[in-house]
Amino acid sequence: WTRVSGDAGAPADLAPLDLRRLVLRLVLGAVGVLAVVGVGSVFAASQLAEREAVNDAAGIADVLAESVVQPVLTEELAQGDPAAVAAFDAIARTRILSDDIVRVKLWSPQGRVVYADEPQLIGQTFPLEEEQLDALRSPSVRAEVSELDRSENVFEQSTDKLLEVYRPVWTPAGTQMLFEIYAAYDPVRERAAELWRGLTGVMLTSLLLLFVLTVPILWRVFTRLRKTQQQREELLVRAMDASAEERRRIAGTLHDGPVQDLVGTSFTVAGAEARAEALGDAALADD
Fold first, then answer.
1. Contact 17, 218 (CB under 8 A)
2. Would you state the pLDDT for residue 95?
3. d(CA 171, CA 109)
4. What was the pLDDT predicted at 255?
5. Which is more confident, 77 or 220?
């Protein structure tokens, strides 16, 4: 209920409830919730898809390192022998590179590119990142989303993001190298869109169900409020009528009782004064 002031001296009245305004507010509230939840679901879907893709890429890199790369590593390849590099290149292009894996590299612990499917990188030296050095010191698979902003990524900057995965490998003689792949980021976007569509469907269904369940309750509450308001308005009107009737009754009583007595007394006193003056009794007339 909202109160609106009436004319001066009149009691405040109750503004009528507006069902359309109530429903409009409900719809606007639902749209606001939908917008907030939609933004949150987009972010959540993106994060979930990225995490899934990073984990999948790490698993693929681990399998490739164990089943494809490490069995064909040689000391000649570790030393950069052109024939060994060419032999590994043939294996990498047939068994590793694909639509999803767009770059393959082998690093020495000193940061020299022993092999890359981009020939211009072979033999160049770049400073290894701390995460890459940690993977060599504590052998493990590391995966992350690369922004491709390092000097070694000059040939990968045709896209904005790639999934970067690396892990150590060893030659039969125990020479350590770092195996690295870059996977395409497009599957992450596709998976995020798929997750978002699923979340959106669940969200819209839930909001629709909530709306369907809420409307009858709101209608019942609105009906009761409307009835209560009408009763209060009727009581207010009756109270105002009773107050006006009481004022009329009091005014009539005063007019027919004390007022008439006062008027009669006034006439009596005036007559006595006139008689006293006629008799020459000035003192009595003044009294």
1. no
2. 95
3. 13
4. 59
5. 77
> What burial letters (b/e) apply to 158-179, b meaning 16+ CB within 10 Å?
eeebbbbbbbbbebeeebebbb
Instruction: Take residue 93 and report the two structure tokens written for it.
Output: 């292009």
pLDDT interval class at 104 (50, 70, 90): very high
Tell me the pLDDT band of 215, cut-offs 50, 70 and 90.
confident
DSSP letters along the chain, please? --EE--STTSPPEEPPP-HHHHHHHHHHHHHHHHHHHHHHHHHHHHHHHHHHHHHHHHHHHHHHIIIIIHHH--HHHHHT-HHHHHHHHHHHHHHT--SSEEEEEEE-TTSBEEEESSGGGTT-B-PPPHHHHHHHHTT--EEEEE---SGGGTTTTTSS-EEEEEEEEE-TT--EEEEEEEEESHHHHHHHHHHHHHHHHHHHHHHHHHHHHHHHHHHHHHHHHHHHHHHHHHHHHHHHHHHHHHHHHHHHHHHHTHHHHHHHHHHHHHHHHHHHHHTT-HHHHH-
pLDDT at 179: 97
Taking the model in full, what pTM does it have? 0.59
Least confident among 70-84, 152-166, 181-195, 197-211: 197-211
Enumerate residues 6+ apart whose C-beta is below 8 A from 163.
53, 54, 57, 143, 144, 145, 146, 182, 183, 184, 185, 188
Residue with tokens 């990188």: 121
